[in-house]
């Protein structure tokens, strides 16, 4: 069972998401928050698998709430997905840097919403619809990459896999391309995250762009 917290200041939005998600036998909405402060409180009390977090909320916005949740080591297993109505919202990029596992537009199809929750909950792939990929590439393109000595800690195979993750490939796609097992791919990704002190694949993609390892235009 995947437990969820819905954080949005609009009660009708929360009700809509709840009605969609609660129909699935493996999904359970364990709490709702009307602002970022309540979202942080529920994260600590309920320890949900996934929080769907609105960007703009009173008292504490979604970006600040995400940063607070993702910087808490005791909440390391809690995944945050940012919800937004804006396709080019740089707050979203900041949220991913703060530890969010990705973001969805609020008008996402129900099927894609459900799939996204499951994907993020298992930590198997970056939640990256095309708008997310464009956003990361656009913002990262304006950065001047600093030296990245952390790359020296990775093996040649790990660098190869990191590059494929940055291109948007899932573990299954990487396994197929490199002719290795899914389990081996997952182990490599886990080791890369540990060596680079990153929370998840979303942060790995951002790190690859910011370090200059990944290039704008890699992702469709």
UniProtKB/TrEMBL annotation:
The keyword DNA damage does not apply. Residues 147-212 form the HTH luxR-type domain. SUPFAM superfamilies: CheY-like (SSF52172). The modification 4-aspartylphosphate is found at residue 54. One of its GO terms (biological process) is regulation of DNA-templated transcription. The keyword Aminoacyl-tRNA synthetase does not apply. CDD domains: LuxR_C_like, REC_NarL-like. Pfam families: GerE, Response_reg. Residues 3-121 form the Response regulatory domain. Keywords: DNA-binding, Phosphoprotein, Transcription, Transcription regulation. PANTHER family: TRANSCRIPTIONAL REGULATORY PROTEIN NARL-RELATED, TWO-COMPONENT RESPONSE REGULATOR. This is Response regulator transcription factor.
């Amino acid at each position: 069972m995947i437990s969820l917290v819905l954080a949005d200041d609009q009660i009708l939005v929360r009700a809509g998401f709840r009605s969609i998600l609660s129909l699935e036998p493996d999904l359970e909405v364990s709490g709702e928050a009307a602002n970022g402060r309540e979202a942080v409180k529920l994260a600590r009390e309920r320890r949900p698998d996934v929080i769907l977090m609105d960007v703009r909320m009173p008292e504490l916005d979604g970006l600040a709430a995400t940063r607070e949740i993702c910087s808490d080591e005791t909440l390391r297993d809690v995944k945050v997905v940012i919800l937004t109505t804006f396709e080019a919202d740089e707050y979203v990029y900041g949220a991913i840097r703060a530890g969010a596992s990705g973001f969805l537009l609020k008008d996402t199809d129900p099927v894609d919403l459900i799939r996204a929750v499951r994907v993020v909950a298992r930590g198997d792939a970056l939640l990256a619809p095309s708008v997310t990929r464009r956003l990361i590439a656009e913002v990262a393109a304006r950065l001047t990459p600093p030296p990245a000595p952390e790359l020296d800690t990775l093996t040649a195979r790990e660098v190869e896999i990191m590059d494929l993750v940055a291109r948007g490939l899932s573990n299954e796609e990487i396994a197929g391309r490199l002719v290795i097992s899914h389990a081996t791919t997952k182990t490599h990704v886990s080791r890369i995250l540990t060596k680079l002190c990153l929370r998840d694949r979303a942060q790995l993609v951002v790190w690859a762009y910011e370090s200059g390892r990944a290039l704008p235009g890699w992702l469709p």
